[in-house]
Amino acid sequence: MIKDNMVSGFSFIKHGLTLEYPILESVQSIDPLCDEVVINVGFETPECDKDDGTYEYLRDNLTGERYKFIKSWWDPSIMSRGLILSQQTNIAMEACKGSIGQYIQGDEAIHEDDLPLIEEGIRKMVDRKEIEGLLYNYTHFFGNTDLYKFDPHSYRKEVRTVRLGIGLESYLDAQGFRFSDGRKPSAIETGARIFHYGWARRENAMSDKKRAFEKLYFGKDHESEEYTYDRIFGLRKFEGTHPALLKSWIEKNHNDVTFEQLNDPRIFANFKNWIRLMVEEYTGHMIGEFRNYKKIK
To answer: Which of 1, 84, 123, 127 sits at a 20 to 30 Å CA gap from 226?
Structure first.
């Protein structure tokens, strides 16, 4: 039963410790916004009796009645195109009791400075039923937590707060949300940020992640090569502050790679992407941008 004006946080994770996800800090970053938090932890067997310790780790650190834990088996028969990620998100989403859902993935975090912006957005959702989601500005860290990607292939915004009980579902590989008929949710800007740390971990953890995720997209028998950080176009230096909750995780996961080592400065070789970035800089619109939402005022 959906409870009006109640905010339900929800997330999912599998092998969070092995893959060095900041899952605890991710959940804690949305905690001040939520009346309850649902966490779906993935297991390797149908009996849900085998994981890497993530379930106990989260249960030990997130105590109290407001936290609801779910055990879920990641069925290898649906491990293609990343669809298991939306399935697992939907399991957590369906267990929420609130009318507003605050989503966070295990490699994301909200900055404490942005909580008032999100609270204001939630108040607008309560007052205006046509608002089906809230948009967040993304910072995608790469290689290190003082570097981030700003290439045309990195999504700039995504919905992370949704109206529950209206048919919205996690979509494809869980980047965003859609209705079952494919319709995009109507969402407003908040100015709040999501800090995405998925590509800013140590290379051994990234190799484990690469193997795990490529199986989700290409099947359980897919063989992966070791991961190394390569040069990319559109790399920028991060000069802001991180969420305070991430301080210890950032110190532990620091990499010895620099902007000079990872940035690809070649304009001619990246000419199409360079043009797209120039157009975005001067117009505010990215050519060919993929959006899971319909932006409204």
So the answer is: 84
